Amino acid sequence: MNKPVRKRIAVVGLGYVGLPLAISLSEHHDQVLGIDIDTNKIKKLSESISYLSDVSNEAITSLKGRGFTATSSFKRVKEVDTIILCVPTPLIMDQSPDLSYVQTAMKSLLPYIKKGTLIVLESSTFPGTTEEVLIPLCEQENLIVGEDVYIAYSPERINPGDSSYLFKTIPKVISGVTPQCLEEITQLYTPVFDQLVPVSSPRVAEMTKLLENTQRFINISFINEMARICHDLDIDVWEVLDAAKTKPYGYSHYEPGPGIGGHCIPVDPLYLKWKANQSNIQTDFIDLAKRINDAQPYYIASRVQSLLHNINQKDASVLLVGISYKKDVNDLRQSIVPLIARQLRLKGMSVSFHDPYIEHMTIDQETLTSIPLTPETLARHTLVLITADHSCLDYNMITEHSNMLFDTRNCPIASEKPIERL
Known about the structure:
Layout: E1 8-12, H1 18-26, E2 31-35, H2 39-46, H3 57-65, E3 69-71, E4 82-85, H4 100-109, E5 117-121, H5 129-140, E6 149-153, E7 172-176, H6 179-189, E8 196-198, H7 202-232, H8 237-244, H9 268-278, H10 284-307, E9 317-321, H11 337-346, E10 350-354, E11 360-363, E12 366-369, H12 375-379, E13 383-386, H13 395-401, E14 405-407, E15 420-421
Parallel strand pairs: 1-2, 1-4, 2-3, 4-5, 5-6, 7-8, 9-10, 9-13, 13-14, 14-15
Antiparallel strand pairs: 6-7, 11-12
Helix pairs in contact: 7-9, 7-10, 10-11
Pfam families: UDPG_MGDP_dh, UDPG_MGDP_dh_C, UDPG_MGDP_dh_N
GO molecular function: NAD binding; oxidoreductase activity, acting on the CH-CH group of donors, NAD or NADP as acceptor; oxidoreductase activity, acting on the CH-OH group of donors, NAD or NADP as acceptor
Protein name: UDP-N-acetyl-D-glucosamine dehydrogenase
């Protein structure tokens, strides 16, 4: 395969999006440089140690073998012709967008950007960010977009913990501020992804990402409400879901859980809500879904309290199994589990946790450390609460040795021992 025109690429932000992207890019382009202000990540990469559950140490070794280097210095963008921003876009305390990482990264990069550079934003954000934030920053440096620099937006579609889709096979939505910007990003990603999905503007691409995650946010919240209804009506929601998903048309399968977490699904809808509200547009579905999701950890805690109604709660101990926001990842961002733990402690219960991927969890400024999952550990707790269904866990062992088990994830358990489910 002929090498593309753009050969030297800097990926800024080496987290759950940036590092897997850097690995894929390195397989098709001459040089990939990683930039991250977290010096601990840079150190681990230099030692061929992965800090992501989806990326092996061997993958890091192979990446470095293809010439990849990582640095915390923005000066090295002088060496590249393409910059891809994969930095966080969280919420601030009032639930409005926090674009400080994007703005700070751009301001740090601009003094070293040479003419002809392609700048691609991959971070999830509200419609208008690419044109309203990136373009003015470039213009402050007298860089004309479409002539001196090219700006594009392409939303990431990483699904941590899911190995059923190869990175290159997930269709890649792309957009450019000008037709030439779109052409530049097309050249960049053509060898990397099997299918590109060009759209007419960055605003369309930005909205596409928010639509995808807002749909999931609303539907998962709805299924959580259905789980509450089924429980109150003494109906097994999991049996209902299994029956419903046999319908071959018109039904999409979602599952309930302890609450929605992660960097995207609980955050992206609020970016959309903020943008809509700026124009006095109401977001009734998003608002309702948020209320349901926000209440879910309190609901889980109340279910635990009901299960322990015959026990003095100050004598009760709860073991949380799996605290990441989803199975098979070491990602605690926006996880609902610390809030569940806090509610249980407020009710007087003592709380411990086990997670094979996460060593520490902080609750009210107290740091808890993951404890071993053994028959003895299980037996000494009043109740075991499964909040993340990691594939590596022995659920039959957990069931066999638990005094009481509350499973919020419908784990694969063969035992006939009584189990409380969501």
